[in-house]
Amino acid sequence: MSRKKIVAIGGGTGMPVLLRGLKQLPVDLSAIVTVADDGGSSGKLRTELAMPAPGDIRNVIAALADAEPMLIDLFQHRFKNGNGLSGHSMGNLLLAAMTSISGDFYNGIKEISRVLKVKGNIYPIANQNVVLHAEMMDGEIVTGESNIPLANKQIKRVFVSPLPVKPLPEAIEAIKQADLIVISPGSLYTSVMPNLIVPEIEHALREARGKVVYVCNVMTQYGETTGYTAGDHIQAIHDHIGADIVSAIVVNNSAIEQDIRKDYAEENAEPVVYDISRLKSLGIEVIEADIIDHDQRKLRHDTHKIAKLLYAML
User: Fold this and answer.
1) Most buried of 64, 77, 181, 211 (most Cβ within 10 A)?
2) pLDDT tens for each residue of 172-216
3) Which domains does the chain have, with CATH numbers?
4) Contact in structure between 7 and 213 (CB atoms under 8 Å)
5) Model pTM?
6) Residue 132: in which H helix or E strand, if any?
């Protein structure tokens, strides 16, 4: 019997959490990852070497790697000091070197994935440098993934340049063949949307035979989704790619402790309200479960709970 195929789409901190659980399951896994990051080490390398941003890809490789823990620690190591090295992570430098050796970012990813025994396929959303822009409700255009939340304005839409963005044919094929497509939690406008708004990806999602499910963030994010309900998250996706793509949403229904709420309130973040009736009016199937890791001070999705839930959907 052939294994079921799951495709995860996203970036940021939510994507690796999702993948770490899924890689333990008997499924064929593919990850389609944003390369619109422009901050920190990723941003420096992308500017200096005119390559796609490696940061989100690096975290996905580390999440899916089956190598010795020591090797993964080395790959994720970030240099604290040193004039040119400060702030760079070893994995980003390796991806930059491999891109240079193989002459192509995607080939570089494949080579490093082989060395680190990655379970699954990793596809950058594009094999070229991509810049993210946001149009705010007041008409201002903000350029650069890291600048968008700093503007702290209501976002009307995000878009990428230069066009056309050409996704890898393998990524399109993976979406078409998938039994389940998961839009991962993460920064809605700067980690999730940059993947969905690529026209060929949007088209593939619309044609896909597998169900498309969005794993909703547990907390709002200052400067991106302040005051957003789960329905607002879905509405934003609808506004960008149409109302006929996402068919289900996974929301957390377990209580969040007061002291954790307090910590987040300092960052102007609060629990995402699940407006069930609005979600249903948008034609979305709502899947409620306890999907958070209760042992952490930082609210994270529980990698095993979420993986089990998604696997059950197959």
Assistant:
1) 181
2) 999 999 999 999 999 999 999 999 999 999 999 999 999 999 999
3) 5-36+125-313 (3.40.50.10680), 38-122 (no CATH)
4) no
5) 0.96
6) strand 131-136
